[in-house]
Amino acid sequence: MRRGLITLLFIIAVFSARAQHYKYIDSTKISGTDRYKRQVRANPDKQLVEIKCYIPQIVLDIRYATTNNFMHRRMYQQARAFARLPVVKALQQVEADLQTRGLGLKIYDGYRPYSVTVKFYEMASDTNFVANPRKGSKHNRGCAVDLSLIDLKTGKELDMPTGFDSFSRKAAANYADVSPVQLSNRELLKTVMEAHGFKVLNTEWWHYDFNGWPEYELLDIPFQAL
Prior knowledge:
alpha/beta, Muramoyl-pentapeptide Carboxypeptidase, domain 2, five-stranded mixed sheet, two-stranded parallel ribbon, 9 strands, 32% helix, 17% strand
């Protein structure tokens, strides 16, 4: 009897150690690697794919893989960008549209593991600029991208109202007191992205959510596991 009880307690301890617990949200709302794989088997569109593999010409500037970000430290171990398959297919259309204008996309961030969102929130809890981990982020669903426009001839970014991750009012998608060139560039990005199924975040001109995001679960999978 005693030996059986000890065995049962050991099994419970092992499973508890393996289970991921979250401070701000019910763990059942977050998918780890195993649950994510089951979801993909049931619906291949839920696969996280590497953006660069589908759009080789796209430019990456993954700031969270560097210290050049508001956290001033590396948040990602790899400078890679992922999104759900339908999101990346929509970005292919955006890139093709922009190329007819001599322009292209520069990606700052795509899919973001939930645990990184928690770290952002605990460092800077202004939910105008960082997601509340009680709800999670569209980035955690693989359905948001942070991006800007580049000139294909020069490789330089087009002039925008602020830099990426600027915690200022001027970063708002409809902020009016900007130069005519900045306004034109920001509105061009918005027009093209919206034409292919994205919506800009009101407080961040660079952040776009895929319109189908509610169909996708919150994920906490490191890049290395993808």
